[in-house]
């Protein structure tokens, strides 16, 4: 699942490479991805891209008139082919393109690797016209994000903290992988309810959230967009590391499935040495 560090790197790449280019052609290969049927992507032909910005896990291509918002969903991503044709640099087993755009000599492909279409394309006047963006909570990547914002997101709720970290209406941009990394750094169990956190634990969790997200953005910036997923997974300490040794204490990292979700965690660092 794309999360804020990789999506931010993607948006910065597009802001640099796509800005100033005119959309010469649009080819939609999967019409289920179109979420604004009254304003199809074909209407973008002739418009120019002026920039690109991230909203949580969404990318907005800012146009001279309106915007194209790409909701990356669970398995969505983009491919960039400078001076080539669609799919030219892609491996045979690469995710299929759902739509392609000719940007004055470069081809931008919007892809989805899932067995069902989770990616969405919205042609809108402003990004806030996309319902999911309008409902986004505060973003830990933003410099103005404060402990007060974090406390409001937790809200003292009797809800597992891992679920809250991934709840986009509470905190924007964090998904399954980075929530595992945040909880490990903060030494907090993924099943702890927000209401049970003491002030020291909440402060550790706040600092871990800000540090994890911002450090990852710094590390991903400048990485070629085709390599961002691999760079993300290579940097994980516990997520996707079931059976390996914790880099902090040496205990075995375990996997937990609960309430339809999964988590990787260290029993010693996060639960007093007892497996969940």
Automatic annotation (TrEMBL):
<protein>
    <submittedName>
        <fullName>DNA-formamidopyrimidine glycosylase family protein</fullName>
    </submittedName>
</protein>
<dbReference type="InterPro" id="IPR012319">
    <property type="entry name" value="FPG_cat"/>
</dbReference>
<keyword id="KW-0511">Multifunctional enzyme</keyword>
<keyword id="KW-0227">DNA damage</keyword>
<keyword id="KW-0378">Hydrolase</keyword>
<comment type="similarity">
    <text>Belongs to the FPG family.</text>
</comment>
<dbReference type="InterPro" id="IPR010979">
    <property type="entry name" value="Ribosomal_uS13-like_H2TH"/>
</dbReference>
<keyword id="KW-0479">Metal-binding</keyword>
<dbReference type="Pfam" id="PF01149">
    <property type="entry name" value="Fapy_DNA_glyco"/>
</dbReference>
<dbReference type="InterPro" id="IPR035937">
    <property type="entry name" value="FPG_N"/>
</dbReference>
<dbReference type="Pfam" id="PF06831">
    <property type="entry name" value="H2TH"/>
</dbReference>
<dbReference type="Pfam" id="PF06827">
    <property type="entry name" value="zf-FPG_IleRS"/>
</dbReference>
<dbReference type="InterPro" id="IPR015886">
    <property type="entry name" value="H2TH_FPG"/>
</dbReference>
<keyword id="KW-0862">Zinc</keyword>
<feature type="domain" description="FPG-type">
    <location>
        <begin position="237"/>
        <end position="271"/>
    </location>
</feature>
<keyword id="KW-0234">DNA repair</keyword>
<feature type="domain" description="Formamidopyrimidine-DNA glycosylase catalytic">
    <location>
        <begin position="2"/>
        <end position="117"/>
    </location>
</feature>
<keyword id="KW-0456">Lyase</keyword>
<keyword id="KW-0326">Glycosidase</keyword>
<keyword id="KW-0863">Zinc-finger</keyword>
<dbReference type="InterPro" id="IPR000214">
    <property type="entry name" value="Znf_DNA_glyclase/AP_lyase"/>
</dbReference>
<dbReference type="InterPro" id="IPR010663">
    <property type="entry name" value="Znf_FPG/IleRS"/>
</dbReference>
<keyword id="KW-0238">DNA-binding</keyword>
